[in-house]
Design goal:
Elements lengths: L1 H30 L12 H8 L3 H21 L6 H17 L4 H13 L4 H14 L5 H13 L3 H12 L8 H12 L2 H14 L3 H31 L7 H5 L15 E3 L5 E3 L7 H7 L1
Antiparallel strand pairs: 1-2
């Protein structure tokens, strides 16, 4: 009997909280139609207990409220202050805790946090929840990868996420090429070569295989020059100034041709680069058509 009484008391508390919470939600719902209202957002663990089987409905409501708040500010050209951004960040985390499969919050939050607030880590942390929950969705790891290299300059981490995206159904066929390019920028040329070689063994599409083969050719030539430059440095105790000195010292017999039409060179930091940036010039693509 004592256990039953405790259970009834606990149930009563949850019901009271449930009614009170949804009453407040309804009042806020009416308000957000006409103005930007932040309102109170309870911790996820509390909301999960109070909303019972209505977690997805609550997530929908909170998403509308957060979107309305941000949209109202933007519409009136009002700048958000730090407190506003933190409120939005908290809300998007609560929303995705209640419904981790809800797609829209990840996309919207990423868009406003990266481009408007420069909150790159916050955006990536939120996206990671979606990457884990929506294991079939290739776009979410792609967004993390994009943020890593475009906003944060973390090329290798960005490439790792592009490879994760590529493993998922429906992903762009170009992702491995982008990843290989990022690995090259990070100096991980051998990793990029190994990855593309593995992809070639399983790729059936002729056009994609052609792209991989061209990229492999370029990367192998870069690796060849990297090793030659390293050998020169070991012998001379100084980095080579240009590729010509590698020829003069007999370390290489000829400077290889870039399959993309550019010219290989040694950059100021000692790395091997190409004027093509591993991409065909637009004019040359047009000529081939």
């Amino acid at each position: 009997m004592k256990a039953v009484s405790v259970s009834l008391i606990a149930l009563s508390i949850f019901l009271i909280g449930y009614i009170t919470t949804f009453s407040g939600f309804e009042n806020s719902r009416k308000q957000i139609k006409s103005q930007q209202v932040k309102g109170l957002t309870l911790p996820p663990v509390v909301l999960k207990l109070m909303t019972l089987e209505f977690k997805t409905v609550t997530a929908d409501f909170l998403f509308v409220r957060a979107s309305q708040f941000y949209g109202g500010k933007a519409g009136q050209q009002e700048s958000l202050v730090e407190e506003d951004w933190q409120w939005l960040n908290h809300n998007f985390h609560v929303i995705t805790e209640l419904d981790p499969y809800f797609q829209d919050p990840y996309y919207v939050a990423n868009g406003i946090f990266t481009w408007d607030a420069h909150m790159y880590e916050e955006a990536n942390t939120l996206l990671q929840k979606g990457v884990d929950a929506r294991s079939w969705d290739w776009w979410l790891p792609f967004l993390v990868g994009f943020n890593k290299f475009f906003f944060q300059g973390k090329n290798k981490e960005g490439a790792d996420y592009l490879l994760e995206a590529h493993k998922r159904p429906g992903a762009w066929g170009m992702l491995p090429t982008l990843a290989a390019r990022l690995y090259y920028k990070e100096g991980a040329t051998e990793t990029a070569i190994s990855f593309l070689e593995a992809l070639l063994t399983n790729e059936k599409n002729a056009d994609i295989r052609k792209n991989y083969t061209i990229r492999l050719d370029a990367l192998k030539k870069i690796l060849y020059l990297e090793r030659a430059a390293s050998l020169y440095e070991d012998r001379m105790a100084v980095k080579p100034r240009n590729l010509k000195v590698l020829l003069d010292f007999g370390i290489i017999k000829t400077i290889p041709k870039d399959p993309y039409g550019g010219q290989f060179y040694i950059d100021k930091d000692g790395s091997i680069k190409t004027t093509s940036k591993l991409a065909f010039a637009t004019l040359k693509r047009k000529q081939k058509k």
